[in-house]
Amino acid sequence: MSDSSPAHPTVPVLDVWCELQCPDCRSALDDLRALRARYGDRLELRLRHFPLEKHKHAFAAAQAAEEAAEQGQAWPYIEAVLGRVEELNRKGEPFLVEVARELGLDAGEFDTALIDGRHILIVDADQAEGKAIGVTGTPTYVIDGERLDGGKSQEGLRERIEEIVDRLLTGQRA
Question: How far apart are CA 47 and CA 173, in angstroms?
Answer without folding.
Answer: 25
